[in-house]
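Continuing from the previous page...

OK, I double-checked the sequence for Nucleoside 2-deoxyribosyltransferase against my notes and this is the correct one:
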Amino acid sequence: MTLIDELQIIGKDSAPHSGKTIYLAAGWFNPIQEKLLKEAYAALLHNQTVAHVHVPLLHQYEGSNPIVNGEFNPDQEWATATFDDDVSAIDNADVVVALLDASDQDTGTIWEMGYAYASHKPVVVLAVGDTFQYPINLMPAQGAIHHLANNNLETFDFYEINKRFYVGKTI
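Thanks. Re-ran it with the corrected sequence; updated structure tokens here:
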């Protein structure tokens, strides 16, 4: 079963809520990132302050899959369409939730955080791993309005996002 299949199953039985639209920025290039993405998506679907969660991986250009024979191998058409679709989805979101694997930070996720910040969208970050051993660059560390202390995405109030500073080492 692919990660896309697993995400579709997670989203299948979610009950609709009124609330905010979330853009879920996350890498999916290693087992930690995949697990984090699945858990965060499931938690957000149960959050009473979330109406919709946009997971870019579930909105692939013409239903394509950029992974061929286990390798990430996108063509230019896919890359251009994906970029445009992701930017549009960030523009339409109320909040960007960014998932960071401290030991293997996805540069695409960090770019999405920067674009959201420049677009005056609140960015909430969940970083997993030891951020003292694996520091996060000061730009994404400071660009988020709230750094979650733990994976409380199911109960986080997206209507009342208060400043919570990054805890860890920066580079």
